[in-house]
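fold-stage: in
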Amino acid sequence: MVTTAIRRGSGCGWHRGRWKSCGYRMTDLSRILLATDLDGTFFGAGGTLLERNLRAVDDFKAAGGRFTVATGRIHRDILRVIPGAATLFNAPAILANGACLYDFFAERILSEQRMEPALVRAVVRSVGQYARAHGEEVGVRVSAAEGIFPDPESRNPYIRKDMQSAACSGAALTVSPDGEQMEKLHLYKIVVRGEADAIARVRPLVEAEFGTALTYTSSHPRFFEMNAAGCDKGHGLRRLADWYRGMFGYEPVTVAAGNYENDLSMLRAADIAGCPSDAQELVKPTCRFILCPFQEGSIADLIGRLRAMPA
């Protein structure tokens, strides 16, 4: 039986193939803190909000559970795809792959882990030089609290598509990697976009050049993502658990759901982890629950399984 790691001090969870009781039935969800990835996990096909998931989340929150998201997106982009984020989430969101904890109800950043402007400029410059020298169709954009910023020299069609989507939230701005404006930004994440084979060629070169200065991950074969060293969704989940302890005075049972490489650290950090059955294969061994396919409502499936767990 696959087990899920128990965070130190939690007092409950899956341990050596058996559920270690927290002293209450899992039908009481008041200590559950559930964080889910969006694309390929909570969203349905085409980035749609599934009614089955929404009903299950409403019931989960009514029973005292805390629900939020852990995503690579920034808060501006969340509001574009989930206009009612302030009412849907009753816990702070983990954004930009763990770089930011954001309270949608209060409309404020609670904590953040920024990237150094000089390092961001160096990565943008290096990828751009490589792309031009080798004729690779890859482009770069940078996510910050203030918006999404493309490399102005990029002609990559994926970057153009991303920026057209971002423009809907008023976040499409352009900044030169050498411009003074970058020094003023809350820089969270660098994203390299391109076809999967081009990304597969670029990623090892960037990792070799910048080493431990960055955290590297991916949320799709056509995405290669970088954050500050030590920053990932697992780090974000631990910071969110700290928020919970400070707010309520007791230890939460952390539950995480995700489907891809950039979710792996969060799934490992959670007390209970789940993934859709169509998740990336490397994710599945970490998860206690293999859920229904994401387009059928995997988060509703997860909440149902939490309710059915023994004391």
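fold-stage: in (second)
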Amino acid sequence: MKKYTIGIDVGGTKIAYGLFDEALNLLDKRVTKTNQASKPEEMLDDMSNVCKELLKSNGLTMEEVKGVGAGFPCHIDYENGYVITGSNLPTWKNVPVRQLFSERLGTRVEIDNDANVAALAEQKFGAGIGNKNMIYITVSTGIGGGIIINDAIFRGDYGAAGEIGHMIVSDFGYTCSCGNVGCLMASASGPKMIQYVLDQMKHGETSTIMDYVGEDEELSGKHIGIAAKDGDKLAQKAIERLGDGIGIMFVNLYQIFNIKHYVLGGSVSKLGKPLYERMNLKFAEFIRFAADYPIEIVPAKLGDDVGIVGAATLID
């Protein structure tokens, strides 16, 4: 009887694999490095081998698997199973992944954008339970989103709905990886928060932030968060700036979709209370009726497994 599912979370630096039973309980997992230079066929060969090894180590065969779901950090043609483009996988362009991967595995394969599968996971098993409408946002190296309307992912006409990081929120600031100036991702992502701090110190602003960075470490959002908690003014200003950008994002999403439940994931969301307070303050500044029609911005619950759980849910 086919009762097992494999969920795969393909990231820019690592690929996570999860083996699930029919109740979607996680039985075992593997993590490998992503070779961004690999050709699609080579990477799919490697992924296929990891899936088979995962099954073998648990005394299972592919004949017992209902299917394999995979989330990619890419623009996806969901209906036809293609990876269209992806900045983290530069060699992947118009690749028929569903067909190629299914041929290698001998079982059903479904693919989707990584933020979409994370949204599905949080709605079914995490911070979105009980909400038929919700938006999942991940703020980390980049910013992405998954939009759920009436219990289904909204993908748009071209499959690229939810590219929240490329929402234009200003006409100045840092240049985004897409080439535009003013994208949310160019002001409110983790790397841009770090860049802002470094630029301010370069221009003479005093700060103790670097005192929190270990000898073999690079400055990260974690260090900025600790410094802010200890009273560093620049760190606090960086978090406020981040919160303002994300707060404006919520204003725009609310005005467009009129959805009240938002789940915030990604490493930057771990900055905690100061970030959430600033986001809510900025939201209330622009939405005058926020007290009468409040929104819920809650932290994601599934942690690092959100991608493999969501990918597994692609297999009915």
